[in-house]
Design brief:
Distance between the termini: 31 Å
Helix content: 55-70%
CATH class of the largest domain: Alpha Beta
Strand content: 5-15%
CATH superfamily of the largest domain: Glucose-6-phosphate isomerase like protein, domain 1
Number of helices: 15
Number of strands: 5
Strand order of the largest sheet: 2-1-3-4-5
Radius of gyration: 22 Å
Organism: Bosea vestrisii
Structural class: alpha/beta
CATH topology of the largest domain: Rossmann fold
Keywords: DNA-binding, Transcription, Transcription regulation
Order of helices and strands: HHHHHHHHHEHEHEHEHEHH
InterPro entries: Homeodomain-like_sf, HTH_RpiR, RpiR-like, RpiR-like_SIS, SIS_dom, SIS_dom_sf, WH-like_DNA-bd_sf
Protein name: MurR/RpiR family transcriptional regulator
CATH architecture of the largest domain: 3-Layer(aba) Sandwich
Largest sheet: 5 strands, parallel
Length: 294
């Protein structure tokens, strides 16, 4: 399965490194994404003041077979990624309706792209490792990844997995040092670059432990993982005034892993989950719609 960032993210990120002609093509497309999805090669070349072969080369640089393939993919992204266009406003959303629209579009886009880019074999491989683990240490740093790591502990211990989480860089290194071949680190990182996570992965691997990393594929953490669950990074610089979208992708992949693990462990954990339900009922009475602490 091919894992690349979205066309729009990639154009934004790579434009400064392109030659003058290709940069002009990228800037022309980004200035009117909706129009670019319907324009001809000749018209785009005219608007960007480049040759038609330059437009074709640009499309291939973006990982497409040609400009027609490029437009199809661009149109698909536009359908699920209107958030990019809304973000071009000079002022952030400042009303309840605008904020709700922005956050909704960001959430839909993140989930759609996470689903489009997910690797089912990687999810299954990660669950194979987690299912056999003696202990699972869930790591993350920063506002998004640290919270997702804590949620991973919340999801896993209910499935009778000895799971714990921490965002403390010292504890991460110490926990990694206590690992053995039957232990696993489950690490969440959008960038795959935080030093404490890299050090922890290296230490754990040196002790024979497994490292399941939910992270951006071409990153240092991805290189250290024994199982990589790829997560495409978003260009978040224009969204500084709202929660980042990467956390939705992380939660999607965590839920995929936890759901599959739960299905595999149902015979083992069903009675324990029933006892958990009974405990909650004894605490405050029956509430039919309440999940078991999920």
């Amino acid at each position: 399965m091919r894992h690349v960032t979205s066309l729009i993210d990639r154009m934004r990120l790579e434009a400064p490194e392109m030659n003058r002609a290709e940069r002009s093509v990228a800037e022309t497309i980004l200035s009117d994404i909706d129009g670019a999805a319907r324009i001809s090669t000749r018209d785009l070349a005219t608007q960007a003041q480049v040759s038609e072969p330059t437009v074709v080369r640009f499309a291939r640089r973006m990982g497409c077979d040609g400009f027609t393939d490029f437009k199809i993919r661009l149109a698909q992204e536009y359908a699920i990624g209107r958030m990019y266009l809304a973000a071009e406003r000079q002022q952030p959303a400042d009303t309840g309706n605008e904020v709700a629209e922005h956050v909704y579009n960001a959430t839909v886009q993140a989930l759609a792209m996470a689903f489009n880019d997910h690797d089912p074999q990687a999810i299954e491989a990660a669950v194979d490792v987690l299912d056999k683990a003696r202990r699972v240490f869930c790591f993350g740093v920063g506002g998004s990844s640290a919270n997702v790591a804590a949620e991973a502990e919340n999801r896993l211990f209910r499935l009778d997995v000895a799971a714990s989480s921490t965002a403390d860089p010292y504890q991460q290194r110490v926990m990694a040092a206590t690992c053995g071949p039957e232990d696993v680190l489950l690490i969440f990182s959008v960038t795959g670059k935080p030093r404490s996570l890299l050090d922890s992965a290296e230490i754990a691997r040196s002790q024979g432990a497994g490292v399941v990393a939910v992270t951006h594929p071409p990153s240092p953490l991805a290189e250290l993982a024994s199982v990589l669950v790829p997560l495409q990074a978003f260009d978040e610089e224009k969204f500084f005034y709202m929660p980042n979208r990467g956390r939705y992708g992380q939660l999607f992949l965590l839920d995929c892993m936890a759901t599959l693990l739960g299905a595999r462990r149902m015979k083992i954990v069903s009675k324990k989950l029933w006892r958990a339900r009974a405990t909650l009922i004894a605490l405050h009475g029956s509430t039919e719609g309440q999940p078991i602490g999920d």
